[in-house]
Amino acid sequence: MAPTFIPPNLLPVLLLLGSNIFMTFAWYGHLKFTDRPLWLVIVASWSIAFVEYCFAVPANRYGLAAYSAAELKTMQEVITLIVFAIFSVCYLGERFTINHAIGFMLICAGAFFVFKSPIAV
User: Structure pTM?
Assistant: First the structure.
């Protein structure tokens, strides 16, 4: 049963946001620790990914009440891009270039069409 104090269309967004924060750290957080053995990085990443799944699975389960599976997947991808852009700049210290912005905007344009009503032909 989904929490009733959070609107059903907002709950999956919040859960996917939490999920993506954990998954970004699981996949890329170790890049600042290249001196650690690979096996240790894998175990740490899998541990973080477990927490990510604790957010992602309910996000999709509860989200299906408000969104289609395609909309949930699209939402997840857009949230991933936003989280990763912030992570790469703030945590990894990478530059965010105009090329990144253009590429992300094109992906978001694709997301627009997933959420838009079917185009009449």
Answer: 0.84
